[in-house]
């Protein structure tokens, strides 16, 4: 097997979804520009070229409002599943294992193995940070994309205000506005519904060969096992 083939095999999940993401983003940009230009022409205004749309607030807010809800989902799920359990779900830890677990179970400090990450063998602040690094990074991504959404949404909202010959608003006013929270909460509720649905449906339904499902013949009450 060549090095290139091995790389593709070893990173197939990331590469496939990364490529699909870029294609979807390009499709969103094309459709979004066409839709906005239709509105601008109807209002008697100059349509935007590709560069103008991609660097504008309308495209930015449409992208970031979805990103922040996705990262919120993962942030809440990563931290929530430390303590919250769902009997029968492969998305849950085994019943009775709520919490951060022992150092031995987590293979940290003196219990680290030869192939454990270096920071798993560390002590003090480095170990505390690394032990929560996935959730922390997801939280940072969420806060960053939420902030970007609020700024780009504010800019897009003010542009629309000016087109309608109305006064622009300050950023703080926009963050408290119905427009901002309508955009935000419509994404949050869909992500939370998806997580709740996956947690309970995976108790009773199966997908052969998927690590997101239990083995097909596993009992409904089996918890924390993957197919």
What is the topology?
Elements: H1 3-10, H2 12-42, H3 50-54, H4 57-83, H5 103-106, H6 125-131, H7 133-163, H8 171-175, H9 178-204
Helix pairs in contact: 4-7, 4-9
Strand content: under 5%
Shape: elongated
Secondary-structure-based class equals mainly alpha
Low-confidence stretches: none
Helix content: 55-70%
What's the pLDDT, averaged over the residues? 92
**Biggest sheet features:** none
Determine Rg (CA atoms, Å): 23 Å
Distance between the termini: 27 Å
Features:
227 residues
Structural commentary:
This protein has 227 residues and is mostly helical. The chain has a domain at 56-204. It is 64% helix and 0% strand. The chain is built from nine helices and no strands. It has helices at residues 3-10, 12-42, 50-54, 57-83, 103-106, 125-131, 133-163, 171-175, 178-204. The radius of gyration is 23 Å and the shape is elongated. The mean pLDDT is 92.
Quick rundown:
The protein is an all-alpha fold. The protein contains 9 helices and no strands. It has a domain at 56-204.
